[in-house]
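User: Write out your own:

AI:
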Amino acid sequence: MRKKTTVRAAAAASAALLLATACTSQRGQDDKDAAADGACQGQQTTGITDKSIKLGGIYPLSGPASAYGTISKGVNAYFKHVNDKGGIDGRTVEFIVRDDGYQPPKAVEEARRLVEQEKVFAVFQTLGTPSTAAVWDYLDKRKVPQPFVATGASVWGTDDKHPWTTGWQPNYISEARVYAKYLKEEKPKAKVAVLFQNDDFGKDLLGGFKEAVADSGIKVVAEESYEVTDPSVSAQMTSLARSEADVLLNITTPKFGSQALAADAKNTKWNPLHIVNNVSSSATVLKPVGFKNVQGVVSATYFKDPADPQWADDAEMKTYRDALREHAPGSDPANQFNAYGWAAASSLHKALDAMKCPTREGLRDAVRNLKDVKVDMLLPGVTLSTGPDDAFPIETMQLMRFKGERWQLFGKPVDTRKEFGPPAK
């Protein structure tokens, strides 16, 4: 934990930045009047005109994390649907997708291509902690917005040196706190074994969990890591089983999440409560293992599951399904990653609407000044909120348990911002 003075200093710096770059203090017609009066002069308009917005996204369409690639289809379907309705404030959205294969050097190459050749307005939804970390220095130097990155690393909301980058999904420390709270209530003497990806993603969630269970009766008794280049995690799972822990915390990306679930199912002598992190909770991860083998697995979420029948008559879910069939034929509407992309794109739409100036600076400031913004694909009770001292848009999650052939929500949404405060800077 760093000193509170550091947090206050960072908050003050962020507040000063927002104040110095704000175009006006009002929205609606007042914003347009201010823009007309020249309040937005001198700001960057690359990639945006009165009629169009050009956005870029970097995803692992290939490689060990390719299961995430379909997120771009959900994003693209949303923007095409919006274009059919007249665009965003009359602007047609062009979304350019690049493949980095989950390789940070490739992500840098593609970011440069999007910025320098394609001249995009913003690089939206870079996916993965390693890839996002590889490009944010470059984008910050070029003053290009990098809004709503597809990674929950806590650094996106605590670092005050990269004002052009903002997270979207709940950060991994907040997610870890939800699992810790659950175990404190249901298994207060739990012995936990942890499988984690050996990078900032895995270490962030594991560190958050350890901090959240400190001074409780819950103990982490075994840890095993893996590299994204490893062929499997079977050896790690064998080692963890020897710990005889009664809880397994599975901090993995889809390929390895599926392997860990399968290994757990095969080991009939070890039957821990299996908690899988949100990024590996999609049915595409669980289905290859066999739904009968993942009964009772616990995770947490914040957006509506398209496979959950309780949303069958939900207006936004109907719109999503129809748009995906039309604009991404062959894509599975029940795939949570597609719904994730739709929800993230819808969130960006809200931020673009909130811009006080139609500029890169305007978007940068808008994503850092959201006030309980409702996004229809998010769960009831989950909204977007950011501020000078808190750049995490979503910090509320709800637990879910796999039963039958789908996830079922249980308990109440947990607002980690209110219960625990933001992660320390």
User: Anything to note?
Assistant: The CA atoms of residues 187 and 218 lie 8 Å apart.
